[in-house]
Every structure is written in structure tokens, then in C-alpha cells.
Design a protein that fits this description.
The protein has 338 residues and is α+β, with helices and mostly antiparallel strands. It contains twelve helices and nine strands. Helix content is 42%, strand content 19%.
């Protein structure tokens, strides 16, 4: 029986030595399990003499322990090896330079719109929005643009019905604002506008404007000038000057087109300003008394100024962009420059 036990030990230890993770459990069952070889031998202990019994019992226990220990050791080795493999495979070199992911960025028109908003918010203006699908009344009628005015021409305006159109300017937001807001009013309203122009380097059927409106007691042309001068300096540089040229808009009286001194040549004349020294930046004027009264504001008590600018235009002159179509084509080579 002693030999039998020693044989079992030998065989067990050897197979443990050769075992893989998968076979280790089978080996354990084979030798130590309820139906295992060692157990089978111990079952035969009954036939031993009382003197032999404790010795063989002790030997059997030793063998059981040594097999268990060998299995435990093997398991531990396997775990250590697995950990080592894992650490090697997942090694991170924290000193390695990172891979830069190409970051998206803000569209130049959005950037300029936000800059414009920041400038006017800094002067106490509030940003408001109006609908792009607009009533004829707000886009034209209330703005003192009469029935037969050329601006109403179906050639210029996208009509949806006789009465409903895609707004051709942001000026209707003036009316909508004055209808529900009491003076003092100080708002800007950026947004999309639509005109049925053929697409070329300076025209697009969809473009963006920013409207401004101030209404209060005692507002004068001086306030308009001061506001626009502050804006121009913030937008184009501290040395920028502005000038007003007489113009006509139905919703302002008097009206002006406003130029900024060329921020490339400072007024001497260059390619950007086409030798003029000045660049047209917006239209403006004192809100027409008819427009005020159309909105329920008494022109005897209140006065106001308004202005409207093209965001594409401002972006093009300030960034040296010569074709409006570039804004809408999403060509990465163009967009990446901003
Ligand atoms: N709405 C005018 C346009 O689209 C721009 C404009 C001119 C707006 C003068 C104004 C203004 O508020 O006072 O051409």
C-alpha cells in the first residue's frame, strides 16, 4: 500500500508539473476527488493491521498535502504569469507624445456673429430673435414700405403666399420688438434673411444680417453715431473712424449709409477699399415716425435709431474673403483657415 501511495504521489506531482491551466482541475479531481485515486487507496485502509494503519494514514495525509501544495503553487505561478503577460501587453508609456485629434472649430460667420453680439451686449443691448417665415406686414407694411415699392418685387422676395414670405431683412424684428416691449428698447437681432438673387461671388439667396434698434426719450443722431463709432473701433481696430453718407431707407428718416475708414490702409487707399480709403459697413438712420406709431409708440414722446448690417459682408472685409459662396460650401481647406 505504501508503494501504491508513493506511486500516486510521483505520478500526481509529475502531471501537475506538466499541467496547463485547463488540465489542473482534472488532475485535482483525478487524485484528490471523492472518486480519486488517493481516496480509493485510503478506502482500503480497513484491511491494514492496527500498527500499519496510523503510519499509512499519516503518509496518505502527507501525500494529499503535497499534492494540494503543488496544485496551489502551480495555480499561483499561472496567475503570476498571466499578470505579467497582461502588464506587458497593456504597458503605457506616459512620456510618449499624444496624438493630436483634429479639432472642429467655429464657422467664420458664427464667430463674427458672436463677436458682434459681444460688442453690442457690452454696450447694454439685448439679443432677440424673430421668425424667418414672416408676414408681409412685418417685413414691409409696418416698416413703411408701401404696396408698390420695388423691394416688394417678387423678383427680390421669396413669397410663400400673397401674405407670407421669407423675410428679406431682419428689420421686421424691430416691429415685433416694439409691439411688445416698452421703451427704453436696446436690442440687436442677428439671423438669416432670404432674397431671390442668383448666387455669385457677392450674392447669395440666403445670407445673414444683424439688426439694431434703440428707442427711448431723447434719442438723437448723435447717439447713433456714438454707438456705431464704438462698434467700428471694437470690430475693426481703435484707429477706425466712421462717416455717414446720406441715403434713403423707407423705415428711417433721415437715413445714412455708414462707412468705416479702411483698416488695412488706414484711409490712404488700397486694394481692399478700392483706393477709396473707406469701406461701406451698414445702413442706419432715425426710426421713421410712421414706424414708431405703427407699433403703438408715440413719436412725439419717443425717438429711436436703427441700423442693419450684413454679417457676410463684415466677415468678408475683416477676413479678406472675396467670394461669399465659400461660406456655404463647407470646403475644409477654406474653413481650416479660421
Ligand atoms: N434692412 C436694410 C436692408 O436690408 C438694412 C437697414 C438699413 C436696416 C437701415 C436698418 C436701417 O435698421 O436703419 O438693406
Amino acid at each position: 500500500m505504501k508503494e501504491k501511495l508513493t506511486e500516486i504521489r510521483e505520478a500526481a506531482l509529475k502531471s501537475i508539473d506538466d499541467a496547463t491551466d485547463a488540465t489542473l482541475e482534472q488532475i485535482k479531481v483525478r487524485y484528490l476527488g471523492k472518486k480519486g485515486e488517493l481516496t480509493a487507496v485510503l478506502r482500503g485502509m480497513g484491511s491494514l493491521t492496527p500498527e500499519e494503519r496510523p503510519k499509512i494514514g499519516q503518509l496518505a495525509n502527507e501525500i494529499r498535502e503535497s499534492i494540494e501544495a503543488a496544485i496551489a503553487k502551480k495555480v499561483q505561478e499561472a496567475q503570476a504569469k498571466a499578470l505579467e503577460r497582461k502588464l506587458k501587453a497593456e504597458k503605457v508609456d506616459v512620456t510618449m507624445p499624444g496624438t493630436a485629434l483634429p479639432a472642429g472649430h467655429i464657422h467664420p460667420l458664427t464667430k463674427v456673429r458672436r463677436d458682434l453680439e459681444d460688442i453690442f451686449i457690452g454696450m447694454g443691448f439685448q439679443v432677440v430673435e424673430g421668425p424667418e417665415v414672416e408676414l408681409d406686414y412685418y417685413n414691409f407694411q409696418a416698416l413703411n414700405i408701401p404696396e408698390n415699392h420695388p423691394a416688394r418685387d417678387t423678383q427680390d422676395t421669396f413669397y410663400i403666399t400673397d401674405n407670407i414670405l421669407l423675410r428679406s431683412q431682419t428689420s421686421p424684428v424691430q416691429v415685433r420688438t416694439m409691439e411688445h416691449m416698452k421703451p427704453p428698447i436696446r436690442i440687436i437681432s442677428p439671423g438669416r434673411v432670404y432674397r431671390s438673387d442668383a448666387l455669385d461671388s457677392t450674392h447669395s439667396p440666403l445670407f445673414h444680417q444683424l439688426e439694431g434698434l434703440v428707442v427711448d426719450k431723447g434719442i438723437t443722431m448723435g447717439d447713433l453715431k456714438g454707438t456705431l463709432e464704438t462698434f467700428a473701433k471694437k470690430m475693426f481696430g481703435e484707429n477706425t473712424r466712421i462717416r455717414f453718407r446720406p441715403h434713403h431707407f423707407p423705415f428711417t428718416e433721415p437715413s445714412a449709409e455708414v462707412d468705416a475708414s479702411c483698416f488695412v490702409c488706414g484711409g490712404k487707399g488700397c486694394r481692399l477699399c478700392k483706393g477709396e480709403g473707406w469701406i461701406e459697413i451698414l445702413g442706419a438712420g432715425m426710426v421713421h415716425p410712421f414706424v414708431l406709431s405703427n407699433c403703438g409708440i408715440d413719436p412725439e414722446e419717443y425717438s429711436g435709431f436703427a441700423f442693419g448690417l450684413g454679417i457676410e459682408r463684415i466677415t468678408m472685409i475683416s477676413r479678406g474673403i472675396d467670394d461669399i459662396r465659400l461660406f456655404y460650401e463647407n470646403d475644409q481647406r477654406f474653413l481650416d483657415q479660421f
